[in-house]
Amino acid sequence: MKRTIVFLALMLMTLSYGQETKPVPQITVSGEGKVKVIPDEATVSVSVETKGNVAKDVKKENDEKIDAVLKLIKKMNLAPADYRTQRVSLNPQYDYEKKKTSYNATQTIEIIVRDLNKYDELMEGLVNQGINRIDNVVFQSSKLAQYESEARKLAMKEAKHKAEDYVSVLGQKVGRALTISDNTQSYTAQPVYARFKTMAMESDAAPRETLAMGEITITANVSVNFILE
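Request: output the structure for the sequence above.
Response:
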């Protein structure tokens, strides 16, 4: 009797194992969604760099120019949260031929320009107040989260459409998704580097546009595993 019970138990376990390991028809596809938008704001990184033979004088001159720059920014009614000091340095530089030490002071300010109509006016004012290095300009969108969501939806639609294309000749249908993997790389706005000489203006020169914004592309990538019915 015990042998019969053990035999039946083994049979049930075997049947159960067989059912569990039965392969499920499925397909894995990737999808990509892209949203192109015109940027509506920019992040600008600018610096004041001063040089001289006396560290205290070099630092003082740099501070005075930065003070004028900050007053200009406030005058243009930029929100306090939209500008910050990014880097401050004072470094000695030794000339081995002349056997003399000079000093180089640098302060860098990062500014978010939320109204691009103010961009040219701001950049001209910064140069006039002592900015002598424009490190980079990055165009971006204030609605990034919204456009990222749109790109993800487009990526999922493309993945499903691709799966339907593959199985359309097999007489099968695409069922529910088993797994979804987000393969999107973090969005990074591309910088537009601008040298000082491209921004400098003569005092009697007419205002002019200095950069072309173009478009930015926000991309989402997914990998989806669908059951086939």
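The two ends are 44 Å apart (CA to CA).
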